[in-house]
């Protein structure tokens, strides 16, 4: 298994872990519609980042990473789950970044 496959696997595992962590935090006391929307956007950003890594689109991966960084600071507890996932996606995107063989000249 090369760096590209490992990076893709890490991205999908990280997005899955974030989704499950957010689902576990969702029914905690203080549930509101705004929390549901925030968690949905954060999970979506994680999956957008993972999609960008898997399809080797650095720009799409960075959109997901930036979204997780921005929304991770919104709530401290959620940030503890979102920020490590954003770092994992960033590292995965760097590991699977476009190579000379598939980059256009």
Mind explaining what this structure looks like?
The protein has helices at 3-25, 33-54, 58-72, 76-95. The protein is mainly alpha-helical and 105 residues long. The chain has one domain (3-96). Helix 1 packs antiparallel against helix 2 (33-54). The chain is elongated and about 45 Å long. The mean pLDDT is 85. Keywords: Membrane, Transmembrane, Transmembrane helix. The chain crosses the membrane at residues 6-24, 36-54, 60-91.
How would you describe the shape? Answer: elongated
Taken in chain order, the helices and strands follow as HHHH
Low-confidence residue ranges:
none
Based on secondary structure, the structural category is mainly alpha
Major sheet details: none
The N- and C-terminal alpha carbons lie at a distance of 28 Å
The overall number of domains is: 1
Helicity, as a percent range: over 70%
Summed up, the helix count is: 4
Number of strands: 0
Keywords: Membrane, Transmembrane, Transmembrane helix
Layout: helices, strands, pairs:
Layout: H1 3-25, H2 33-54, H3 58-72, H4 76-95
Keywords: Membrane, Transmembrane, Transmembrane helix
Transmembrane segments: 6-24, 36-54, 60-91
Condensed summary:
This protein has one domain (3-96). Helices cover 76% and strands 0% of the residues. It has helices spanning 3-25, 33-54, 58-72, 76-95.
Key descriptive features of the protein:
single chain; 105 residues; mainly alpha; 76% helix; elongated
């Amino acid at each position: 298994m090369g760096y590209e496959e490992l990076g893709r696997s890490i991205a999908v595992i990280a997005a899955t872990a974030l989704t499950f962590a957010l689902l576990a935090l969702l029914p905690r006391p203080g549930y509101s519609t705004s929390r549901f929307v925030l968690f949905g956007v954060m999970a979506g950003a994680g999956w957008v980042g993972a999609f960008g890594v898997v399809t080797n689109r650095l720009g799409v991966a960075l959109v997901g990473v930036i979204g997780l960084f921005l929304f991770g600071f919104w709530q401290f507890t959620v940030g503890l789950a979102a920020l490590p996932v954003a770092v994992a996606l960033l590292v995965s995107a760097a590991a699977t970044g476009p190579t000379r063989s598939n980059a256009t000249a």
